[in-house]
Task: inverse folding
């Protein structure tokens, strides 16, 4: 087999990129840090948790097309029913845990709100006192 | 005489776990009394695969313990205090810096792992590393004992199993660019996406990028990748998540190009898997990757997405180049044959076992 010259191939690609005016206009991955990782607020997470804590054991099965599809759905329904006695208590326990956890988080959130307001009031009070003192 | 292995986590499908299981099988065949002890055993593996580290019985001076070192864990410290002879199977630690903007927990774990590796430097008798790169890593961290290179044991017979037929059917006629490996920051999935984006735009509109590897939807890195894909509007990217083995096999069967842009690998098993499935490899030259590829594959020292895309096009279109790459890969693959690595392992181990005392001079090469 003829020897392959990778360097030559690379040079040909470079030439092709120049000739055809190919450009890389994709923005840097580093620029997505803010939007994906850091922009979600604590409140956003509270909202998500409050919406998803209640896990459902019962899953709706999509209707299958054709005889084979209908048969598959039938088998899944049988399976769903036969493991109900086992799955449902686990899910209920999990839901109880989730509910309590989210409840605690909500309480902490309100507690933080109260404290933040208190802090703001105290800051304001300190500022006022500072002003009064400097006025003397 | 006992030869025990210690791993922090034994998980199915994980390269470290597979390596430990393969070594266990060799040790059993060679007549050693052996067992794997783990801090945790992930399902679907059962109790027969390994025992909890708490059950590690008293070892004698002449016994041998092999620690698979790849992460920060309490077992690394337990290992240091064992009275027997000690071998470290160094699987490498991902530098914590990769996790800085992505995963604070992983950053800390890896920071601790590096501290563990340094801590063990003067407490072990012998090391086996999967690559030259790993060996250099240990030397840089103060290891003075003898270090040999032993590639990761890969049971290739498993890859001959029947692949998932539905996936085969779906992607048989589609140009597939593949990467397999955890969706982790050091794998530089974003660079694969960028190169694929250029490839799709300028060379092959029908191409599909398949990223086979586990992730959690809550992972910051995964979410960043999703946002990036959404903003760049690059289509036809599939994240499979954790899938069955026959499904992984099917993706390998369908793949036309294996693209690796990883910036930190201690060995990179997927490269060898790609060789096995006769997929031309294009990889970024970093860490252990040049060692694992040897003379095979296309090793690039640039990540310019336009150039990578151009090379992808050449590999896809140029039959002669494809054949040449696959031929070279088959040559390299022979070096990683299961039998060959097994034989090498036993050779190293028997040589080590022959030296009876702990920390004997013969074993110190410096």
Result:
């Amino acid at each position: 087999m003829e020897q392959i010259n990778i360097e030559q191939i690379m040079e040909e690609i470079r030439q092709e990129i120049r000739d055809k005016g190919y450009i890389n206009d994709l923005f840097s991955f580093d620029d997505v840090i803010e939007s994906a990782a850091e922009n979600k607020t604590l409140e956003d997470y509270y909202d998500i948790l409050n919406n998803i804590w209640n896990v459902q054991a019962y899953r709706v099965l999509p209707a299958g097309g054709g005889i084979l599809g209908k048969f598959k759905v039938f088998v899944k329904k049988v399976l769903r029913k036969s493991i109900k006695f086992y799955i449902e208590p686990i899910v209920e326990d999990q839901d109880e845990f989730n509910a309590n956890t989210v409840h605690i988080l909500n309480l902490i959130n309100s507690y933080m709100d109260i404290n933040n307001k208190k802090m703001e009031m105290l800051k304001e009070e300190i500022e006022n006192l500072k002003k009064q003192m400097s006025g003397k | 005489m006992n030869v025990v292995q210690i791993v922090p986590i034994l998980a199915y499908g994980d390269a470290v776990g597979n390596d430990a299981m393969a070594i266990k099988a060799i040790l059993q065949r060679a007549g050693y009394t052996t067992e794997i002890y783990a801090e945790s055993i992930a399902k679907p593996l059962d109790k027969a695969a390994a025992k909890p580290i708490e059950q590690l019985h008293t070892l004698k001076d002449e016994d041998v313990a092999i620690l698979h070192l790849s992460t920060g864990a309490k077992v690394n410290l337990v290992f240091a205090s064992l009275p027997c002879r000690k071998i470290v199977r160094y699987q490498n630690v991902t530098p914590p810096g990769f996790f800085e903007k992505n995963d604070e927990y992983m950053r800390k774990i890896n920071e601790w792992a590096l501290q563990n590796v340094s801590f063990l430097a003067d407490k072990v008798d012998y090391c086996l590393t999967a690559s030259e790169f790993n060996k250099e890593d240990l030397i840089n961290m103060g290891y003075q004992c003898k270090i040999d290179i032993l590639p990761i044991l890969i049971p290739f017979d498993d890859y001959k199993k029947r692949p998932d037929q539905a996936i085969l059917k779906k992607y048989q006629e589609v140009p597939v660019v593949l990467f397999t490996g955890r969706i982790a920051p050091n794998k530089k999935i974003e660079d694969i996406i960028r190169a694929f984006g250029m490839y799709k735009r300028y060379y092959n509109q029908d191409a599909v990028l398949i990223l086979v590897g586990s992730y959690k939807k809550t992972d910051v890195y995964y979410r960043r990748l999703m946002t990036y894909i959404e903003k760049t509007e690059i289509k036809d990217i599939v994240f499979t998540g954790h899938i069955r083995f026959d499904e992984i096999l099917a993706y390998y069967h369908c793949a036309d190009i294996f693209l690796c842009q990883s910036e930190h690998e201690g060995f990179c098993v997927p490269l060898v898997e790609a060789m096995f499935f006769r997929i031309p490899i294009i990889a970024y030259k970093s860490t252990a990757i040049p060692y694992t590829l040897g003379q095979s594959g296309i090793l690039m020292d640039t990540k310019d997405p336009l150039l990578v895309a151009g090379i992808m096009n050449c590999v896809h279109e140029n039959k002669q180049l494809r054949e040449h790459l696959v031929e070279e890969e088959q040559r390299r693959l022979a070096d990683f044959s299961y039998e060959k690595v097994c034989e090498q392992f036993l050779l190293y181990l028997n040589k080590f076992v022959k030296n009876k005392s702990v920390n004997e001079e013969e074993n110190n090469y410096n």
